[in-house]
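Whiteboard transcription, Tuesday session. T.W. wrote the structure tokens on the left side:
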């Protein structure tokens, strides 16, 4: 439609191992109607995706912007958790300071891992009717996640 631009988001792109799928996307991006690119492709994936692009330099040439997110620092991890809670409508932060320190040390600041750990900690805290989540609870939840992942 007039005045609109399509955006295709390709999440978990590191899981795509079919070169034909990548070639199809590249051909789609190379198609220009009236001198305009038909869409913007946003590729999201784990760092494991980077070697693919290194082996296929023609993809690098198509990128307008390339961004690699680094893990969060301890203070950024704390701010990230607090922001997510406030965005969800939480008026009181249930994690004590030691718990937030444990979140960082156990996740190394990786947002996806922070989310999983905190989500499960909040769920367990709710089930156990806790008003404050401690570092020991965070460590126990992390142990549970690690055990489940190993099985």
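and on the right, the sequence the group agreed on:
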């Amino acid at each position: 439609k007039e005045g609109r631009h399509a955006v295709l988001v390709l999440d978990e792109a590191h899981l795509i191992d079919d070169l034909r799928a990548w070639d199809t996307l590249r051909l789609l991006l190379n198609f220009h109607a009236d001198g305009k690119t038909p869409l913007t492709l946003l590729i999201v994936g784990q760092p494991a995706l980077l070697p693919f692009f290194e082996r296929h330099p023609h993809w690098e040439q198509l990128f307008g912007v390339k961004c690699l997110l680094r893990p969060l620092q301890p203070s950024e991890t704390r701010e990230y958790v607090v922001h997510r809670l406030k965005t969800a409508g939480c008026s009181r932060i249930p994690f004590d300071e030691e718990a937030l320190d444990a979140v960082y040390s156990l996740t190394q600041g990786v947002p996806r891992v922070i989310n999983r750990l905190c989500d499960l900690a909040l769920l367990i805290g709710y089930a156990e009717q806790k008003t404050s989540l401690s570092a020991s609870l965070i460590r126990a939840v992390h142990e549970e996640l690690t055990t489940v992942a190993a099985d």
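Someone added at the bottom: The mean pLDDT is 89.
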